[in-house]
């Protein structure tokens, strides 16, 4: 889905803390012969795509084998799920065969194509889908199948546009949902069984009597979906079907409810799906969770363990239909580079341990759909490496050297993650242990002489880089920056437009606190003094400002507000705001 359109229910589901942890297993056991009524009995080899890809599929014995063959996967986000007139309405270009070839070349084996149907659909009683739109979806699905992908399509933003009104509009919603899937199932009844149907994206319900009622409504939708598809004939009789938890969340009650649904349906070709965007405060950079620390890591581990226990350990394959960081909705820099790399390294490893198939959410912010390249190659290198191996990281990827005065040795804690330290490199050449650095256990100390050399003329800003090479995986890059304590200047403006002139002097902003004069928390989400990055505030390094947003001021009382800006160097800078109606004045 377009992450900025994500509903509160979906976000809250991602925030929920889990309360139990189970030992992970390597994955569900598989049988050596096709199950009765399984996809294996219907699978045929195909040689397609105008000779470009001669795709011959091995017979997959179980649905677990098929799910495993989908790893890794990618989402064609903000395209057919857009709620405008066509697939380009959210800013992405039209999909081409060449583009899908490029995605396949990145190593992805499956593609999730979210589809929002509502704006291309007539009213009751038939809710007819625009044939031209259905033709276009079929065209792209066919290209993807010809490319060798496993493909997943669904009902996407319809979930919050009209499906969510089911508690107060039950029969009308059920009729429209049934009509939608009847038409989609009929159109694709003879498509290759590498095409999968997902019943609904991030299911949610408004104005219900509570979670128990919502679970019943979702079970009803999933059951109707299953009945329609299986009864539509052709390859739909055995097509893999993907069923979500409520909100695609990982709370125990949601997982148990879906596990019970799947058991009741007694169908060998069902896959369970959840979404995972990590520990919510870290994922959006709020409440001071700027680092991928032990708490953030444990929360992710607990979530994945619960999913494994509910499904994989019982022989039900799991596809994590979307994963990433929610802060990417606004800017991929919401989470600091090294911390995001640690998240994706760990996530890929943890999912692989538990036998999950993972599908990266990409609404166009990762793979450039016109230039055909990754916007952040280092990020993709870490993601793709995690599909097969671990990579070593470190406590940080930033080392700050004072722009004036003496230079001292500095230390980083290495996180080998099962690898071993191999070398420290500068410009591809190995540095000398005992002179340039020392390694004691996992503590890597960079000598003062080395740092002074790398700092060059000490001009504030990026200076140089080092690379920690491990025995396997992606090397860890350490950026050396010359830095002085940032300087903030006085400013005046309005609640609709306010920016603090800032000399960052080589530093980078990590987070901001806001408190009233009496010490209570100010601004939105006042359960924490640390505000949400890129929502309440945002640095603009090129312009030399820190912007405070209208959303921040909308929940700030008149009077004095004391701000504390925390920078990655460890420096903090205080600043005072005075708000009077729509007028704002700031002073250091």
UniProtKB/TrEMBL annotation:
> Residues in domain Endoglucanase B carbohydrate binding?
485-586
> Which keywords describe this protein according to UniProt?
Carbohydrate metabolism, Cellulose degradation, Glycosidase, Hydrolase, Polysaccharide degradation, Signal
- Record-stated family: Belongs to the glycosyl hydrolase 5 (cellulase A) family.
Domain Carbohydrate binding X2: where? 395-480
User: Quick one: signal sequence residues?
Assistant: 1-25
Which residues lie within the region annotated Disordered? 29-58
Alphabetical list of Pfam families matching this protein: CBM46, CBM_X2, Cellulase
According to the entry, every stretch annotated as the Glycoside hydrolase family domain falls at 87-366
Output this protein's name.
Cellulase family glycosylhydrolase
SUPFAM superfamilies, per the entry: (Trans)glycosidases, E set domains
In this chain, composition skew of type Basic residues spans: 49-58
């Amino acid at each position: 889905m377009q992450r900025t359109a994500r509903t509160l229910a979906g976000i809250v589901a991602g925030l929920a803390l889990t309360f139990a942890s189970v030992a992970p297993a390597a994955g569900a056991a598989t049988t050596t012969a096709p199950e009765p009524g399984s996809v294996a009995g219907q699978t045929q080899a195909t040689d397609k795509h105008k000779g470009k890809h001669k795709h011959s599929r091995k017979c997959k014995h179980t649905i677990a084998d098929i799910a495993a063959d989908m790893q890794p996967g990618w989402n064609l986000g903000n395209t057919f799920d857009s709620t405008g007139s066509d697939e380009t309405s959210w800013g992405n270009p039209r999909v081409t065969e060449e583009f899908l070839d490029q995605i396949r070349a990145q190593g992805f084996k499956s593609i999730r194509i979210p589809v929002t149907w509502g704006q291309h659909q007539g009213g009751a009683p038939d809710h007819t889908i625009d044939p031209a739109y259905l033709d276009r979806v079929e065209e792209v699905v066919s290209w993807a199948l010809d490319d060798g992908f496993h493909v997943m399509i669904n009902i996407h933003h319809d979930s919050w546009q009209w499906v969510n009104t089911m508690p107060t509009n039950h029969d009308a919603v059920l009729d429209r949902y049934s009509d939608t899937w009847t038409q989609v199932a009929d159109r694709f009844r003879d498509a290759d069984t590498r095409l999968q149907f997902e019943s609904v994206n991030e299911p949610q319900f408004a104005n219900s009597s509570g979670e128990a009622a919502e679970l019943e409504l979702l079970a009803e939708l999933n059951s109707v979906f299953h009945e329609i598809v299986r009864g539509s004939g052709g390859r739909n009789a055995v097509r893999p079907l993907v069923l979500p938890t409520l909100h695609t969340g990982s709370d125990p009650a949601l997982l148990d409810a879906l596990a019970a649904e799947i058991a009741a349906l007694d169908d060998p070709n069902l896959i369970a799906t959840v979404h995972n965007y990590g520990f919510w405060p870290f994922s959006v950079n709020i409440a001071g969770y700027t680092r991928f620390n032990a708490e953030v890591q444990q929360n992710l581990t607990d979530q994945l363990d619960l999913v494994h226990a509910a499904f994989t350990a019982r022989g039900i394959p799991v596809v994590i239909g979307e994963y990433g960081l929610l802060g990417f909705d606004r800017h991929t820099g919401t989470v600091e580079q090294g911390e995001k790399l640690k998240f994706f390294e760990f996530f890929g490893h943890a999912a692989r341990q538990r036998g999950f198939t993972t599908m990266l959410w990409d609404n166009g912010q990762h793979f450039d759909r016109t230039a055909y390249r990754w916007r952040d190659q280092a990020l993709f290198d870490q993601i793709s490496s995690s599909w097969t191996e671990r990579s070593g990281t470190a406590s940080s990827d930033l080392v700050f050297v004072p722009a004036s005065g003496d230079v001292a040795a500095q230390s980083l804690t290495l996180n080998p993650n099962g690898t071993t330290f191999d070398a420290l490199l500068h410009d591809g050449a190995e540095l000398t242990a005992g002179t340039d650095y020392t390694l004691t256990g996992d503590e890597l100390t960079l000598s003062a002489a080395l740092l002074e050399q790398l700092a060059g003329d000490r001009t504030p800003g990026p200076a140089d880089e080092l690379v920690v090479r491990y025995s396997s995986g992606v090397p860890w890059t350490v950026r050396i920056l010359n830095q002085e304590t940032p300087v903030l200047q006085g400013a005046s403006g309005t609640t609709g437009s306010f920016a603090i002139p800032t000399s960052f002097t080589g530093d980078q902003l990590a987070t901001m606190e806001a408190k009233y004069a009496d010490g209570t928390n100010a601004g939105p989400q006042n359960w924490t003094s640390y505000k949400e990055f890129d929502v309440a505030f945002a640095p603009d390094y090129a312009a030399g400002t820190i912007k405070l947003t209208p959303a921040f001021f909308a929940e700030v009382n008149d009077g004095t507000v004391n701000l504390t800006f925390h920078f990655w160097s460890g420096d903090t800078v205080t600043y005072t705001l005075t708000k009077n109606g729509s007028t704002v004045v700031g002073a250091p």
